[in-house]
Amino acid sequence: IRRILKDYFRYNVSFVMNITDIDDKIINRAREQNIPFTSLARKWEVAFMEDMKTLKVMPPDVLTRVSEYIPEIIKYVATIIDNGYAYESNGSVYFNTSDFSKKHNYAKLYPWAVGNSQLLAEGEGSLSVGVADKKNPGDFALWKKSKEGEPKWQSPWGDGRPGWHIECSAMASDILGGTIDIHTGGEDLKFPHHDNELAQSEAYFNHQQWVNYFIHSGHLHIDGRKMAKSLKNFITIREALQSYSPRQIRLFFLLHKYDSVMDYSDEGLSHARSLEKSFSEFFAVVKSYIRDHDIMSSSEKWSDSEKLLYSFLASTKEEVHQALEDNFNTPQVMLLLSELVKKTNSYIASIKEANEGGPKAYLLFSISEYITSMFKVFGVIDQNEIGFPVSGSATNVEEVAAPFLDAINQFRNVVRLAARAKDAGEVLKECDRIRDQQQAANAAKEAEKYERSKIPPSSLFRSSKDKYSEWDENGMPTKDVDGKEISKSALKNLKKEYDAHSKLHQKYLSSVSSSSSSSSSSNNNNNNNNN
Question: What's the rounded Cα separation, in Å, for the pair 201 and 170?
Fold first, then answer.
């Protein structure tokens, strides 16, 4: 949604992400593991950020942590007390929902949940003292008195720590001020968390509206049941990535409305994989025509077929725009883009069958460029070239693969036409042609591999100054181009590449040595014969 707002509708988006690194669950889990709560929180924050980077989720513009905002939170609570909407009780501070409701609307998002004791208890946390210190059962903690063994900070009300709800209000308000355009979160956070955020923020600013719009995401289900550790149907992002690529997972999410239940299943992800395959094949065909296009020898005049397809492209763009305006309806957009691919494939097939000189490459480029631009908006593609990116460590794989793709595409076309004409001889002739082309390509590939094998391992990464800034004595990168330490996972992959290249280089040295020995032996034999 952030990408759509920013890259499609061109809004200026300032994205603030709050990190809760102090709460009852974190404290309890840290106790179980006998580690500081800060260590536990940082461990999972790092893991979360790594997963988001893998999935190509844009990083926040601002990241706020509760542990770094304690002074601001204390001031926030004090102001709410001064404004008459909170009170101190036995070292804790509670929000007075009864007094607030006299001048404001409490529980705007989920009013029918007011008084739900189970939801209220979940919102207060397992380490809360209960209702004994509260004026009203529905009041909630802004500041909790710390018990023995719990983290604590000094405050006007004694040693304590923030309540769950107050942290989000204080941190977001510090960055964004008295009004927030959009607040996001899961639909299960409507009450009490988001409703309590609204109440305490309106109490702090003494106004009636802190958030203009809420965007709540739907629940994630696993094979038809809500995902939960208690049901033992829990799957992590890293587990999912063992079976599916980041792109396939992003496509899977795009096939579901953000505010609806999303059922994670092999069937659903297989559908996303098939969709990726259909788009990949489409891009490969289009790129083949673009590479082969000779503007000087081809007619660029449009027939009714081109005009109809161009009209369909224009109507698709308009329908995509309407779908995104309709609550970010990405499943509809994916359906529209798929239909555009089908129409274009039908156009290509009809032109071939009629033998009209080939499809118009510029039109194909316009269509594929538009689809690529939408995928870039959705974070599925992060390049400007059309289609899905294909890259390697040493060479552009797409350039290397282009002859194979072109050959296979041409082979498919010839075989299709020959099959219709029942001409077996033409099929065999085409098989011979693609075999010869394959052999030539393999020879070129081996030649490239041989040239690369000449590079000493110590020099393998030193030429990549656009990626690395420092290397160790063996030539292994130690810092990236920005001067940051190479991560352990990246270093592990680089070590694998280094070791593999070392073997390749050693094989080259052995061949050179063997060749030199053979040459020397031959010279000696010639000298003996001369003697």
Answer: 8
Give the Cα separation of 235 and 67 in Å (integer). Answer: 29
H helices present in 230-299, as ranges:
237-240, 246-254, 266-292
Q: Residue 427 — φ and ψ, nearest 5°?
A: -65, -45
**Locus of tokens 């995104």:** 324
Q: How confident is the model at residue 41 (pLDDT cuts 50, 70, 90)?
A: very high
**What's the pLDDT band for 30 if we cut at 50, 70, 90?**
very high
Cross-strand partners of 18: 64
Q: Stretch 288-312: mean pLDDT, rounded? A: 88
Please tell me the number of Cα atoms within 13 Å of 312 on its side-chain side.
Answer: 21
Residue type, 507: K
In angstroms, rounded to a whole number, what is the distance separating the alpha carbons of residues 77 and 165?
11
Residue 396 pLDDT greater than 70, yes or no: no
pTM of the model: 0.73
- By the 8 A CB rule, do 27 and 127 touch? yes
Cα torsion through 316, 317, 320, 324, rounded to 10: -170
Q: How far apart, in whole angstroms, are the C-alpha atoms of residue 298 and residue 357?
A: 7
**What is the average pLDDT value for the chain, to the nearest integer?**
87
In 163-249, which ranges are E strands? 180-186, 211-217, 220-222, 225-226
Cα dihedral angle (268, 250, 409, 288), rounded to 10 degrees?
A: 160
- Please say whether the beta carbons of 207 and 178 come within 8 A: yes
Identify whether the C-beta of residue 191 lies closer than 8 Å to the C-beta of residue 119: yes
Asked if residues 508 and 454 have their Cβ atoms less than 8 Å apart, the reply is: yes
Amino acid identity for residue 96 in this structure = N
